[in-house]
Each structure stands twice: as C-alpha cells, then as structure tokens.
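User: I've been trying to design a sequence by hand for this structure and keep getting stuck. Would you show me what you'd pick, starting by listing the structure so we're on the same page?

Assistant: Good idea, let's start from the same input. This is the structure you sent:
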C-alpha cells in the first residue's frame, strides 16, 4: 500500500512539474486524457449552464404526460465527434432546432472555464454543424509548429494560431499583405519565417530593405533581386512593372491561341497557363516601407511619388501576373504621402504586431474589423512576436511565428539557393555572392578618407 501511495505521489508530482515547465508534454501525456474525460462527463451539465440546451419538443412533453413518464430534460447539441489533437480537443456538434452558430460563439468563454481549458473558439463548418476548438495550454507561449504541414504552391505555414491550428500565408487566396508593428515587436522574425517558408517553393524572391540591407541581405543567396536604398528600389520596382507587362502580353498571346480552339480554357492569370510557359511567381518583400517614403528635397519627393506609383500598380495588377507584395513597416498611414491609402486598400492580408497607439492599429484593421483593432492594442509588450492576422473577410486570429533566428533562416535559404530563378528583367539587381570583408573594423577605428 505504501508503495502504491508513493507511486501516486510521484505521478502527481511529475504531472504538476510537466504542466508548469513543459505544458506541451503535459498535454500529450496526462492533459489530453483528463480533458477528454472532463468534457464527456460534464458535457450535459456544462451545456445547460452555458445556455446551450433546448427544451424538449411539444410532442415529447405530451408523450411523457400521456405515458406518465418523467418530463424529458433539455437537450444539448449532439456530439458528432470529439477529436484529441497535439494541442487540445476538437468537438464537432450538431445543433438542435432553434440554435445557431452565434449561440456557441457567444458561449466560448463560459465553455472555456467550465471545461477547464486554456482557450475555446468556434466556427460553423456547415449549416447546423459547429466545430469547437479547445486548447489545453497557451500554445503561443513557446511556438512549436507541427511536423506535418500541408504543402500547396504559394501557401506558406508561417505561424501558429491560438487555437493550435497552423496559420498559412496563402498568396493565391490573399495576394498582397501588410505587416505592421512597433519597433522590437517581431516584424522581422515574422518576415524571416515567410522567406524561410517560401525558400523551398518555385518562386522568385525580391527584397527591398532600406535598413541598409541588414535584414534581407544575409538571405541573398535565395533572392533573385535586392535593393538596399531608395534609388535602387525605384529602379527595381519599375523593372518589376515592366516584367508584369511582359507577363500580361504572354497571357494575351495565350488567350488569342485558346480563343481559336473550341472548348479550350481561356487563361485569366499565370496559374491558367500551361506549366511549360508559366512565368515563375514573384514575392516582393519590402522591409520598413517608411524609408521609401521619406524625402528632404524636391528630387527625393519625385522619387517617392514614382515608388508609390509603382507599388500601387503592382498591387492593382500584380495578382494575375503572379506578383505578390509583402510590405512591412511601423506605420502605414497618410503621413507617408499621397497614394498610401490607395495602396493600403490593395494590401488585404493584414498582420499587426504590438503597436504603440490606436491609430497604428486602425491602420491595420480600421477598415476591416473593429474587434481586431482592439485585439492588436491589447498585445502585451513582453510577448514579442504575438500578432493579430486578419483579412478583408473581417475574420482574424491571434498568431505567433516560431522564433527563427537569422542563422536558421540563412541556412534554409542557402540550402535552397539552387532554386533561385533568374528573371532577365531583374538581372541588374541580382545580389552578387557577398564578398567577405578582409577584416572586422570597429566603427571608431575606421580611418578617415584621405584627400
Ligand atoms: N515569434 C517570436 N517568438 C519569440 N520571440 C520573438 C518573436 N519575434 C520576435 N521575438 C523577439 O523580439 C525581438 C525583436 O524582434 P524583431 O527584430 O523581429 O522586431 P522588429 O519589429 O523587426 O523590430 P525593428 O523594427 O526594431 O527591427 C527578437 O530579437 C526576438 O528576441
């Protein structure tokens, strides 16, 4: 008996320790079993307490009265499936007549504490069927991406959502994106994850990094073109516009051929073109966009206007030509000059890391979801990398990218360097294999240039 007691104490202590230090392991060992039992045992009473039951129908009440049986109880939604996952439980429910998905959505917070879970979200899968996703612990605290990820062209797993599912950046569904956040909020780590995710795809990466190239130039071996100052950025963007026009010509030529063939598909974008002539898609990553918009002289102002015009043209017409924009900055409002609001309207994939004020949060979500604005303002300063991701449908999620170091991203880019396509229009901006400096020279010891 004593040994049995000792074993119980050891198991309970181990579970407590795991729960505190390694919640993911705790979930996989003890948590999933306890939570499944808790949900199954308490299901009826919790649903009743959360107002998610319906009265029995009139004929059942009448039948009970006639047959002198006890009055039937209120009925909760029927459980179609209860599936344990790596991070929580997924409960699929068939709603009763008179219930709708909003009833469940409104009760998620009550369900969360009644079932003793960390988080609960719900979504309607089809009419009358709702999926309730419950997480057993804070999955965003230490992000671990699942080993098995979906693979599809131009769809990159970039972060984890708070409900434990993977957040994909899907360029074909949402072509252009805007990532905002205060300094040190996690924008570069997010962008690094994007590059690392895209590296293994058949895609040309183009980078504009006016922070002297410190973020994107180390990843140069996987980039088809890079610019590290506004002058080169302008030339590069105008070259991209020319490339886009060439792709449009190709689509038109292909259309003329198909029109003459009865029943042939007519191409509307690069993805409809036969694979052998399909141009490679291009993702243009712009780090710290405000650097492109700053000007001190009339000449620089003209350059700024041309940069914004090129970006607007790429955003408006780029999708069909397979050119996707990924713009990153601390702020993105009208103070950056004319044309910015028009550009923002085209950047429908929005990601906001911690922001300093409500105005910045509004720049990300003001035009698509007021709830997301509130959620972005509430991101705590100490959880760097946590962000709100939403799109023009108004749906949004709290996400966090894995903490990929620059070294890890460089290794991934180097591994896939042979996939870097050569785009003739962008050849002048192809980064040369970086020449190693002969020695490290501290700034203070840099010799002044002699006349
Ligand atoms: N997803 C993440 N998980 C854990 N830590 C993170 C994450 N993202 C960022 N951090 C931490 O926050 C620090 C700042 O991140 P990052 O450089 O991406 O911020 P930033 O918004 O690009 O800042 P800046 O605008 O000043 O360049 C990183 O050094 C890292 O320690």
């Amino acid at each position: 008996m004593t040994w049995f007691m000792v074993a119980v104490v050891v198991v309970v202590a181990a579970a407590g320790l795991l729960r505190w230090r390694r919640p993911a392991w705790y979930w996989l060992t003890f948590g999933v079993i306890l939570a499944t039992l808790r949900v199954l045992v308490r299901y009826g009473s919790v649903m009743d307490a959360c107002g998610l039951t319906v009265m029995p129908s009139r004929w059942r009440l009448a039948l009970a009265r006639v047959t002198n049986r006890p009055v039937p109880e209120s009925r909760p939604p029927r459980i179609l499936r209860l599936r344990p996952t790596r991070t929580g439980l997924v409960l699929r429910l068939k709603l009763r007549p008179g219930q709708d998905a909003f009833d469940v959505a409104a009760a998620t917070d009550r369900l969360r504490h009644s079932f003793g879970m960390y988080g609960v979200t719900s979504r309607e899968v089809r009419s009358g069927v709702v999926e309730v996703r419950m997480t057993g612990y804070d999955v965003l605290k230490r992000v671990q991406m699942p080993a098995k990820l979906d693979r599809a062209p131009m769809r990159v797993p970039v972060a984890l959502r708070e409900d434990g599912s993977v957040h994909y950046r899907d360029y074909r569904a949402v072509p252009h994106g805007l990532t905002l956040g205060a300094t040190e909020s996690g924008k570069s780590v997010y962008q690094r994850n994007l590059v690392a995710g895209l590296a293994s795809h058949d895609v040309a990466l183009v980078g504009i990094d006016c922070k002297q190239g410190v973020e994107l130039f180390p990843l140069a071996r996987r980039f088809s073109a890079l610019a590290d100052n506004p002058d080169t950025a302008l030339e590069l963007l105008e070259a991209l516009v020319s490339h886009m026009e060439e792709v449009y010509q190709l689509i038109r030529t292909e259309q003329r051929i198909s029109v003459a063939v009865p029943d042939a598909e007519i191409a509307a974008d690069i993805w409809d073109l036969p694979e052998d002539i399909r141009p490679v898609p291009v993702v243009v990553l712009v780090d710290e966009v405000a650097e492109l918009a700053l000007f001190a002289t009339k000449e620089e102002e003209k350059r700024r206007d041309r940069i914004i015009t090129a970006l607007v043209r790429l955003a408006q017409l780029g999708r069909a030509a397979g050119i996707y924009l990924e713009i990153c900055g601390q702020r993105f409002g009208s103070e950056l000059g004319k044309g910015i609001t028009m550009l923002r309207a085209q950047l429908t994939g929005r990601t906001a890391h911690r922001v300093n004020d409500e105005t910045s949060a509004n720049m990300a979500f003001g035009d698509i979801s007021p709830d997301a604005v509130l959620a972005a303002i509430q991101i705590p300063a100490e959880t760097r990398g946590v962000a709100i991701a939403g799109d023009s449908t108004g749906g949004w999620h709290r996400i966090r990218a894995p903490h990929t170091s620059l070294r890890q991203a460089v290794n991934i880019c180097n591994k896939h360097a042979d996939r870097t396509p050569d785009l003739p229009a962008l050849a002048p901006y192809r980064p040369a294999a970086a020449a190693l400096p002969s020695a490290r020279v501290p700034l203070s010891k840099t010799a002044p240039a002699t006349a």
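That's my pick for every position. To get oriented when you compare it with your attempt: The first helix runs from residue 2 to 21. Residues 181, 183-189, 384-385, 400-401, 403 surround adenosine-5'-triphosphate (CB under 6 Å).
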